[in-house]
Each structure stands twice: as structure tokens, then as C-alpha cells.
Amino acid sequence: MPYDRVSACRACPRLAAHLEAVREIHPEYHCAPVPPLGSVRARLLIVGLAPGLHGANRTGRPFTGDASGLVLFRALARAGFASDADPARARLLGARITNAVRCLPPGNRPVAAELERCSSYLRHDLDRLWWPGVRRPRCILALGRLAHESVGRSLATTLAPFGHGSSQVLAPGLLLLDSYHPSRQNTNTRRLTESMLDAVMAQARQHLQPPL
Questions:
Q1: Which of 72, 111, 113, 212 is close enough to 94 for a disulfide, judged by CB 3.0 to 4.6 Å?
Q2: Which of 15, 32, 36, 212 is nearest to 124 (CA)?
Q3: Given phi > 0 = left and psi -120 to 50 = alpha, else beta, which region is 95?
Q4: 172-193 burial string, b = 16+ CB within 10 Å, else e?
Q5: What is the pLDDT of residues 98-143, one digit of tens each?
Q6: Within 10 Å of residue 207's Cβ, how many Cβ atoms?
Q7: Burial class (CB in 10 A: 0-12, 13-18, 19+), 129
Q8: Alpha carbon 103 to chain centroid distance?
């Protein structure tokens, strides 16, 4: 499926059926593949896992409409990567947000085949970091282990193991950073705190100097 037709993608039968079932209950929801958010010329690409049921699957905007998005956008705003801490109002500043899987998966858990089928879309987003003429630093921020592994799969490269706050150079000037996903489960249990996420954002900001 061509990248510009991602909204019409039905390559994963389980995901397509799930979206139809959710649409029956919530006809006002987006209930379709969710496109990336932010400029294609951004030098920070944030990779999440998949749309949330009442978040991006409802609004059609990555990390907009649920608790995960509130945590992420507050951190982005504090680091200067977003104009506002409210995801619904924010404009991304030098950043772009995408997901390893474009469609809402049952139980918020895509299976391996779905991650594989969607990898071409993620690869397209990753390729944008190499737009012609760019010689300045670039950064990928993977939110969670599955997002981290999806980056490796899409780039056809072997990555070091996922670890919150870890980093590795993928190419000259291109840095991969890891963070725990800002899910309610991680934040409620304090596995991920705002200060922990701020520290990762600071790593991205430092790498991307001079200012975006």
C-alpha cells in the first residue's frame, strides 16, 4: 500500500475487524489508521507503539486524547519541542510523532505479523530524517521496547537492547534514545516519572543543538 494511502490500509485482518467493532460502539471515533503528526522536516522523530482506544483512535492525532498523551506533551512542552502542554492545542516544534503500528490493536498489543506489515510505513518516516541537504544532528526517540525493536526492524539493523535512558548512534549524527512508554500503567506505578522523561528529552535537546 503506498504511504499516502495509509488511511485506507486494511492489510491486517485482525486490526481491521477490531476497528469495525469499535466503530459500531463509537461511531464518532476516528477508527482508522492514524497518520504521523508534525513536519516531515523535523529532526526529532518520536516512535510510539500504537493508537490508544480513547486517545489517537478517537481523535486521529497521535498521543492526543488520553493520559499517555498528556504526559508526553507536557514533557515536549517543557523541552521546547511543543508549543503547548495540551496535545489538542499543541504545535510540534522540530519534532514529529508516529507509531510502530498505525491501527488500534486489541488489548493495546499488536502481534508480530502486524508490526512487520506496518514496518514499511515506519521506515518511510525514518527515511524522512535523511531529507536532502541535512547535515545537522537527528534523533529518534523510541517509547518502549516494542517501538525500539520496530525501529531496528524497519532499518534492518541490529540494535543494542532496550533500556530507559540508553542511547546508541545509528549513523553519523543520528542518535537513537529509549524511554519507557508514558502509559498510565508506567506512570501510575512510578516506573516512569516526569523527571525521568524530562531527562531523556534533555538528551535529545542536547544532541540536536544548535537550536532547531
A1: 212
A2: 36
A3: beta
A4: ebbbbbbbbbbbeebbeeeebe
A5: 999 999 999 989 999 999 999 999 999 999 886 655 568 999 999 9
A6: 18
A7: buried
A8: 12
What's the whole-number average pLDDT of the chain? 92
- Other C-beta atoms lying within 10 Å of the C-beta of residue 2: 9
Instruction: Output the CA angle 148-149-154, nearest 5 degrees.
Output: 100
The one-letter amino acid code at 127 reads: D
Rg (CA), the chain: 16
pTM of the complete model? 0.93
Question: How far, in Å, CA of 197 to CA of 173, rounded?
Answer: 22
**Euclidean distance between CA atoms 80 and 92, whole angstroms:** 9
193: cell is: 516519572
Task: Answer yes or no: are the C-beta atoms of 108 and 167 closer than 8 Å.
Answer: no
- Three-state DSSP at 196 gives helix
Question: Is the per-residue pLDDT at 4 higher than 60?
Answer: no
- Residue positions counted in the chain: 212
Here the cell at position 117 is 506489515
Q: Which residue shows C-alpha cell 532499518?
A: 155
Q: Note every long-range contact of 85-89, with CB atoms under 8 Å and residues 24 or more positions apart, other chains counting.
A: 87/61, 87/63, 88/59, 88/61, 88/64
Q: Residue 159: what pLDDT? A: 95
Given a contact cutoff of 8 angstroms between Cβ atoms, the answer to whether 97 and 63 are in contact is: yes
* pLDDT in the model for residue 128: 83
